[in-house]
Amino acid sequence: MQITIRSLLSSAQTAKLAAAALLISTYLPAGYANNMTAKPEQNMLQREALFYYHQGDYQHALTTLEHAKLKGEKLNVKTSLLHAGLVVHFDFNSDDNTGKLFERYFKQQSAAKHLPAAEHDYVFFVLMQGFYQQGNLEKAQQAHDMIGDHLLPKYSDQFYYLSGELAIALDNDKQLTMAKQHISPGSVKHRYLAFNHAMKALEQQDTETALALLSVSAVTEQKDLEGLAYRGNMHINALSFTDSLNAIIDRAYLAKAYIYSDLKDYDEAMASFRQVTLNSLDTESAMLGMGKVAYYQNDLNSALAVWQQLAQRDSASGYVNQGYVLSAYALERLGKPQQAYAAYQNALQHFTDAQRLLTAELARVDQPDYLSSLLENSSKNFLDVGKVTLNLPESIDDYAQIASPEFQRRLTALKQTEGLHLQLAAWQRQLLALAQRYYTEPSITLETLPTSETKLAEKLLGREKNKLQDIDNSLNRLTRQLMGSYFSQDSLGGEQKALLSAYKRYQTLEAALKTIDVNHKDYSLLRARLNRVAGGLIWHIGDYYLTSEMLATKNALLAQQQYVLELENRDAQLLTKQLAKIDQQLEQAEKHSQTVITRITERFEGLLASQLDDVEDYITHSELAMVRLRDSRNTDKSAVVAKLNEKVLP
After folding, report:
1. Which of 140, 507, 615, 650 makes a 20 to 30 Å CA pair with 369?
2. Interacting residues of 428 by C-beta distance below 8 A, sequence separation 6+
3. Could you tell me if 609 and 363 are in contact, meaning their C-beta atoms sit under 8 angstroms apart?
4. How many CA atoms lie within 13 Å of 115's alpha carbon, on the beta-carbon side?
5. Alpha carbon separation from 57 to 37, 62, 139, 416, 431 (Å, rounded)
6. Is the pLDDT at 496 greater than 60, yes or no?
7. Any bridge partners for residue 539, and if so which?
8. CA-CA distances (angstroms) from residue 368 to 363, 365, 411, 594, 601?
9. Number of Cβ atoms within 10 Å of the Cβ of 457
10. How far apart are CA 477 and CA 485, in angstroms?
11. What Å distances lie between residue 93 and 98, 428, 589, CA to CA?
């Protein structure tokens, strides 16, 4: 088999690379908050959220913003937009809620109207990516149409690529042409766009257009590109064959080969099949196709050689399974019944083993921890979510399924929700520890915190108010001691005369108060008022005349007054509410995770069931072929054939 070797890649590596190459990720890009620099007047939690965002820790950023809102911080325009983008990115809401979010923040541009033009365009670019990733093409196009001419150049290629993808999906030829013309000449996104456009042309049965576009995706020399009718801006001199580029070229050649095969242009089909890289995601499909083309050209020996090579590959993909059957069939057509019979026996054993494994696997699918047994999450801690990968049973190997857009999106969503769950659980532990430290009460638990927090907060406030009263009384006592010495030290000036007059009135009131019985109902009120007069006088005297003891007491009173005021204004159950919010987010993340797990499991169950159906068909085919050979050539009268005879024949 003469398959082009651009680079040798393992099947597993290429599967991942092809998924990355063909299914461009449109998550929030690093730098979303580049133009959202925190201003000094911003609240602390908002600045903290921006810090986490810049570290690429979107879950922590979103959670911190939620806590900022809970605490009563008013999000400014920029952090409101960041919050909206993160919510759309994670998509924990239903489509309806996401739509409302879009309407609220962006459609009327109420939040974005005061932003500089570059930031305005960037916000809608992020929303465009988020909605495109969710498959909400209508809202993605709405966001696209709100982007002006001020998007930063570093986002240009991704914007025009997504613009082209939207144009293909929505049949907007003008927008597609614009996108092709603006993607950078050396960008691989030209190839992605051409490939996806080709797939759309095939859906519309426009084979000629599809082949031309696939040639754009597969071209490896600039001189070859110049002869193609492509209204893009590609430039591929000194082309570097990266893994992602190899993947898209392989897929383009494979698609071309099968189209030419359907058109019975077997020479072109064979030439395209031979361009597929060895040991890539598409190698097995190419080998199967090459054998079929050779068979259609009545070159049975070449077909047999390729199919036998395919059957020897260490996987249980549908292509390999067909290789087993077709190898035996080719031997039968070549008039080699004994070899064909042995090949069918070998195939039957292979399919029986596969059937046993698939049946056992399907029996496990409904078990609660089934999917988690296939998933590997390399999370080191809640700040490093790691990568979720599938650990399939040894003989279940279908890269086409795993590399599909939906499957990859689901795995990514599962990774994010699991990471968020870890993040929130860590927040929960941290807040509980904070409550225990703050209230010096280690026995506080999640269940007892609401009651404990209220009681302890009230106790704390009462204690601090008593402390404030004690300091106030001390200051008033020191005030009375100071008054006389102050007015005897200096000659009287204008302000001092006014103060002296006030002091004399104070003395008169002090003397009058001493004549009142301390048990009189108004005594406490009058004493409090007179103390405030004394406090006012000492404040007017100024710090210059205060003793060190008086100055320290005055500063202590000011600090204690501020602290008591903060305690009075603070929500007594702030930590409780924060923990309740985390509980709500945990529940939401858990539901979202379960939804994703259910969808992945259903998809995987469908894959197993489909493979099992195929294997059972191959088993029946092999059994019938063996009986047919026995009857026609009398090659074997063993007990095995007798048993097949009982099973298959009437």
Report:
1. 615
2. 446, 579, 582, 583, 586
3. no
4. 29
5. 17, 9, 26, 11, 19
6. no
7. none
8. 12, 8, 18, 11, 10
9. 19
10. 14
11. 6, 22, 10
The pLDDT confidence band at residue 137, using thresholds 50, 70 and 90, is confident
What's the average model confidence in pLDDT over 560-578? 72
The label of the residue with tokens 């754009």 reads: 216
Q: In 3D, which of 451, 445, 448, 426 has the Cα closest to residue 586?
A: 426
Residues 6+ apart with CB under 8 A from 301: 334
**What is 397-419 written as a DSSP string?**
--HHHHTSHHHHHHHHHHHHHHH
Which residues partner with 376 through β-bridges? 389
SS3 state of residue 375: strand
Task: Give tens-digit pLDDT for 294-304.
Answer: 999 999 999 99
The span from the CA of 257 to the CA of 253, in Å, is 6
Contacts of 165 (CB under 8 A, 6+ apart): 132, 193, 196
Helix/strand/coil percent split, the chain, to 5: 70, 0, 25
User: Is 0.85 surpassed by the pTM of this model?
Assistant: no
DSSP state of 56: T
The tokens describing 346, both together, are 């070998």
pLDDT digits (tens, 9 = 90+) for 363-399: 888 887 777 777 665 444 333 444 556 666 665 655 5
| H and E: helices and strands count for the chain | 27, 2
Classify residue 401 by burial, with Cβ atoms within 10 Å: 0-12, 13-18, 19+. Answer: buried
Find the helix packing angle between 156-170 and 117-134, rounded to 10°.
50
Give mean pLDDT, residues 137-154: 87
Question: Left if phi > 0, otherwise alpha if psi is -120 to 50, otherwise beta: which for 42?
Answer: beta
Q: Please, is 16 exposed, middle or buried when counting C-beta atoms within 10 Å of its C-beta (0-12, 13-18, 19+)?
A: buried
- The token duo for 32 is 């979303």
Q: What is the per-residue DSSP string for 253-296?
A: HHHHHHHHHHTT-HHHHHHHHTTSPTTSTTHHHHHHHHHHHHHH
Q: Which residues contact 325 (CB under 8 A, 6 or more apart)?
A: 347, 618, 621, 622
